[in-house]
Amino acid sequence: MTEFSVLVDPSAWWPGFERRLRAAYGAVGYPEAAAEFSVGRMRDGIAEWTVSEILSAGTRVGFVAVTMEADTPTGRIGDLWVDAAHAGQGHERAARSWAEGWCAGQGATRVAVRLVEPDGLFADYPVRGQLRMRAITAAATPLDGVTARPMTPAEYPGWLAAENAAFAADIVRSGAMTPDEARRKADNAYTELIPQGLDTEDHSILVLEHAGARIGTGWLKHRHLPGVTFGFSLEIDEEHRGKGYGRAAMAVGERATVEAGDAALMFNVFGGNEVAMSLYTSAGYPVVEETRSIDLPPGTGALP
């Protein structure tokens, strides 16, 4: 029988979790400095986590860690680990049920998990988002005559409104949030990310052109992680889609990454966007993290 005992002091859990996290980041190709930064950021946030031992006949066989996300009714499973000697004996499934019950007891209607490597235990949790990343060693050659220039102040308000609406719609389509939750998240995100608009430090907000005519836009944040540029969007305008410009837009992002002094480019793709997933795969951007979540059935109660 699997039992659970919440730890008052989680220090017995953290060193093993950190080792596993570092190993997973290394396996998927995170630059060393970016992995170190990500581990440190995780460490700073665990004060709000609840960590429980997983026990079998009084012997510790693993750990499960849970927390609640701020401002949404979403619980998160931060870690679920069973020692290899005790794997496959039902402890993993019991720990998942315990974690879902704990989240429900805190008022969660949804439970999410972030995976750095595949885990069949959460195969029935729908994919809500993926981080894709690859190393960029040299500035890409412009493809198909597509170039980029800085966005002008006159172009910025219309772009911002469209980006905000598209971001909220992507979140809703992925199933990660309700429309109201998604709108609030989008409003807060843009206020926090680009408070000075076009003058916000370390951001490139671009207009993509072909033969002197606009075909799309791009938005990248340099040094999002040490040595890593994050591509918030490289968007081809609707009337120009289907003409092969998607890969050319990514080449623009890769060139901007190198010119900013970063060594890797990362993108987020929302669940349900198979077109973008296929593009990133064909361009050599593997999945380095994946977020999955499930809605809890009504009446799910906290487990002891």
What is the structure about, briefly put?
This is GNAT family N-acetyltransferase. This protein is α+β, with helices and mostly antiparallel strands and 304 residues long.
Kindly describe this structure.
The chain has helices at residues 14-27, 32-45, 91-105, 156-174, 179-193, 245-259, 274-282, and strands at residues 2-6, 50-56, 59-68, 74-82, 110-115, 127-135, 146-150, 203-210, 213-225, 228-236, 264-270, 287-295. The protein is of the alpha+beta class. The chain folds into 2 domains: 2-129, Aminopeptidase, CATH 3.40.630; 138-262, Aminopeptidase (3-Layer(aba) Sandwich), CATH 3.40.630.30. Helix 1 (14-27) runs antiparallel to helix 2 (32-45) and helix 4 (156-174) packs across helix 5. The longest helix has 19 residues, at 156-174. The protein is elongated and about 70 Å long.
List the helices and strands and how they pair.
Layout: E1 2-6, H1 14-27, H2 32-45, E2 50-56, E3 59-68, E4 74-82, H3 91-105, E5 110-115, E6 127-135, E7 146-150, H4 156-174, H5 179-193, E8 203-210, E9 213-225, E10 228-236, H6 245-259, E11 264-270, H7 274-282, E12 287-295
